[in-house]
Amino acid sequence: MGVVTGLVPLNAPEVFLELHDGNEALGRVYITLQSHLHRAQQFLTLCVGEKGPSFRNSLFHSVLRRSGTGEGLLGGDYEGKAGKGGAAIFGGVQGEEEVAKRCERGMVVRGSPRAEMAAQFCIMVRDGPRNRTVFPFGRVSKGMSVVEEACTRPALTVGVLECGWVLPV
Protein backbone atom coordinates (compact mmCIF):
# COMPACT_ATOMS: atom_id res chain seq x y z
CA MET A 1 0.00 0.00 0.00
CA GLY A 2 1.10 3.57 -0.61
CA VAL A 3 1.77 6.59 1.55
CA VAL A 4 -1.80 7.90 1.60
CA THR A 5 -3.49 4.53 2.04
CA GLY A 6 -0.93 3.75 4.73
CA LEU A 7 -2.64 6.42 6.84
CA VAL A 8 -5.99 4.65 6.71
CA PRO A 9 -6.78 2.41 9.69
CA LEU A 10 -5.89 -1.18 8.88
CA ASN A 11 -9.00 -2.62 10.48
CA ALA A 12 -12.13 -2.16 8.31
CA PRO A 13 -11.50 1.15 6.51
CA GLU A 14 -14.57 2.98 5.24
CA VAL A 15 -14.78 4.59 1.79
CA PHE A 16 -17.48 6.54 -0.01
CA LEU A 17 -18.83 6.79 -3.54
CA GLU A 18 -20.86 9.92 -4.36
CA LEU A 19 -23.31 8.96 -7.10
CA HIS A 20 -24.97 11.16 -9.70
CA ASP A 21 -27.16 10.82 -12.77
CA GLY A 22 -26.18 13.64 -15.13
CA ASN A 23 -26.58 16.86 -13.13
CA GLU A 24 -28.71 15.17 -10.44
CA ALA A 25 -26.94 14.21 -7.22
CA LEU A 26 -28.20 10.88 -5.89
CA GLY A 27 -26.20 10.78 -2.65
CA ARG A 28 -23.31 9.02 -0.97
CA VAL A 29 -22.77 5.34 -0.44
CA TYR A 30 -20.47 4.37 2.44
CA ILE A 31 -18.69 1.02 2.26
CA THR A 32 -16.72 -0.78 4.96
CA LEU A 33 -13.93 -2.88 3.48
CA GLN A 34 -12.33 -6.14 4.60
CA SER A 35 -8.83 -4.70 4.64
CA HIS A 36 -7.02 -8.07 4.69
CA LEU A 37 -8.23 -8.83 1.14
CA HIS A 38 -6.17 -7.63 -1.84
CA ARG A 39 -9.35 -6.77 -3.73
CA ALA A 40 -10.44 -4.47 -0.87
CA GLN A 41 -7.00 -2.83 -0.86
CA GLN A 42 -7.30 -2.22 -4.60
CA PHE A 43 -10.83 -0.79 -4.14
CA LEU A 44 -9.50 1.58 -1.47
CA THR A 45 -6.63 2.66 -3.74
CA LEU A 46 -9.07 3.33 -6.60
CA CYS A 47 -11.31 5.37 -4.28
CA VAL A 48 -8.33 7.48 -3.21
CA GLY A 49 -6.71 7.64 -6.67
CA GLU A 50 -3.26 7.33 -5.15
CA LYS A 51 -1.75 5.42 -8.09
CA GLY A 52 -3.42 7.56 -10.77
CA PRO A 53 -6.51 5.58 -11.82
CA SER A 54 -9.67 6.28 -9.84
CA PHE A 55 -13.35 5.43 -9.77
CA ARG A 56 -13.98 9.20 -9.98
CA ASN A 57 -16.00 9.99 -13.15
CA SER A 58 -16.58 6.30 -13.92
CA LEU A 59 -20.04 5.00 -14.83
CA PHE A 60 -22.09 2.08 -13.57
CA HIS A 61 -22.48 0.05 -16.72
CA SER A 62 -25.13 -2.49 -15.78
CA VAL A 63 -27.86 -3.50 -13.37
CA LEU A 64 -27.68 -7.26 -12.92
CA ARG A 65 -30.98 -9.12 -12.60
CA ARG A 66 -32.94 -5.82 -12.53
CA SER A 67 -35.79 -6.00 -9.97
CA GLY A 68 -35.09 -9.70 -9.40
CA THR A 69 -33.41 -11.96 -6.87
CA GLY A 70 -29.70 -11.13 -6.70
CA GLU A 71 -30.10 -7.65 -8.22
CA GLY A 72 -26.88 -5.65 -8.18
CA LEU A 73 -25.33 -2.45 -9.51
CA LEU A 74 -22.18 -3.17 -11.55
CA GLY A 75 -19.37 -0.64 -11.94
CA GLY A 76 -15.64 -0.20 -11.62
CA ASP A 77 -14.61 0.25 -15.25
CA TYR A 78 -12.42 3.27 -14.50
CA GLU A 79 -10.96 3.01 -18.02
CA GLY A 80 -14.32 4.01 -19.54
CA LYS A 81 -14.80 1.02 -21.79
CA ALA A 82 -18.51 0.57 -20.98
CA GLY A 83 -17.93 -2.52 -18.84
CA LYS A 84 -15.07 -4.06 -20.81
CA GLY A 85 -12.24 -2.48 -18.78
CA GLY A 86 -11.19 -1.87 -15.21
CA ALA A 87 -7.90 -3.76 -15.08
CA ALA A 88 -6.18 -4.56 -11.80
CA ILE A 89 -3.87 -1.77 -10.68
CA PHE A 90 -1.62 -4.17 -8.79
CA GLY A 91 -1.21 -7.93 -8.60
CA GLY A 92 -2.73 -10.38 -6.19
CA VAL A 93 -6.42 -9.52 -6.57
CA GLN A 94 -7.21 -12.78 -8.39
CA GLY A 95 -6.37 -15.15 -5.64
CA GLU A 96 -6.94 -17.86 -3.17
CA GLU A 97 -7.79 -15.35 -0.44
CA GLU A 98 -11.33 -15.01 -1.76
CA VAL A 99 -14.03 -17.02 -0.02
CA ALA A 100 -17.38 -17.62 -1.71
CA LYS A 101 -20.40 -16.64 0.38
CA ARG A 102 -24.14 -16.63 -0.20
CA CYS A 103 -25.16 -13.43 -1.98
CA GLU A 104 -26.69 -10.90 0.47
CA ARG A 105 -28.09 -7.40 0.17
CA GLY A 106 -25.45 -4.75 0.89
CA MET A 107 -22.43 -6.86 -0.02
CA VAL A 108 -19.80 -5.33 -2.30
CA VAL A 109 -18.50 -8.20 -4.39
CA ARG A 110 -16.15 -9.07 -7.23
CA GLY A 111 -17.68 -7.89 -10.50
CA SER A 112 -15.68 -10.06 -12.88
CA PRO A 113 -13.30 -13.02 -12.61
CA ARG A 114 -11.35 -11.76 -15.67
CA ALA A 115 -7.98 -10.09 -15.00
CA GLU A 116 -8.61 -7.27 -17.48
CA MET A 117 -11.74 -6.35 -15.48
CA ALA A 118 -10.46 -7.10 -11.96
CA ALA A 119 -11.39 -3.64 -10.64
CA GLN A 120 -15.07 -4.14 -11.45
CA PHE A 121 -17.40 -4.53 -8.50
CA CYS A 122 -21.08 -5.13 -7.84
CA ILE A 123 -23.13 -3.69 -4.99
CA MET A 124 -25.85 -6.23 -4.17
CA VAL A 125 -29.32 -4.71 -3.79
CA ARG A 126 -31.22 -7.95 -3.14
CA ASP A 127 -30.28 -11.28 -1.60
CA GLY A 128 -29.42 -13.89 -4.20
CA PRO A 129 -30.89 -17.36 -4.58
CA ARG A 130 -29.62 -19.93 -2.09
CA ASN A 131 -27.35 -21.56 -4.66
CA ARG A 132 -25.69 -18.30 -5.82
CA THR A 133 -22.38 -17.46 -4.23
CA VAL A 134 -20.27 -14.33 -4.60
CA PHE A 135 -16.86 -13.12 -3.47
CA PRO A 136 -17.41 -10.20 -1.07
CA PHE A 137 -14.74 -7.73 0.01
CA GLY A 138 -16.93 -5.06 1.60
CA ARG A 139 -20.39 -4.11 2.78
CA VAL A 140 -22.51 -0.97 2.44
CA SER A 141 -22.64 0.67 5.87
CA LYS A 142 -24.85 3.60 4.85
CA GLY A 143 -26.62 4.72 1.68
CA MET A 144 -28.38 1.59 0.37
CA SER A 145 -31.32 3.79 -0.67
CA VAL A 146 -28.91 5.60 -3.02
CA VAL A 147 -27.90 2.29 -4.63
CA GLU A 148 -31.55 1.25 -4.91
CA GLU A 149 -32.37 4.52 -6.69
CA ALA A 150 -29.39 4.07 -9.03
CA CYS A 151 -30.75 0.65 -10.03
CA THR A 152 -33.96 2.27 -11.32
CA ARG A 153 -31.99 4.43 -13.79
CA PRO A 154 -30.80 3.41 -17.28
CA ALA A 155 -27.36 1.80 -17.54
CA LEU A 156 -24.44 4.13 -18.27
CA THR A 157 -26.21 7.21 -16.85
CA VAL A 158 -25.32 6.79 -13.16
CA GLY A 159 -21.72 7.53 -12.26
CA VAL A 160 -19.28 8.27 -9.46
CA LEU A 161 -18.88 12.03 -9.10
CA GLU A 162 -16.48 11.81 -6.18
CA CYS A 163 -14.95 9.07 -4.06
CA GLY A 164 -12.50 8.72 -1.20
CA TRP A 165 -11.93 7.31 2.23
CA VAL A 166 -13.60 8.32 5.48
CA LEU A 167 -11.17 9.21 8.24
CA PRO A 168 -12.30 8.21 11.73
CA VAL A 169 -12.71 11.09 14.15
From TrEMBL:
Query: What domain of life does the native source organism fall in?
Result: Eukaryota
Domain PPIase cyclophilin-type residue range list = 16-149
- Could you state a single Gene Ontology molecular function term? peptidyl-prolyl cis-trans isomerase activity
The cross-references to Pfam families, in alphabetical order and at most eight, read: Pro_isomerase (PF00160)
| Name by which UniProt lists this protein | PPIase cyclophilin-type domain-containing protein
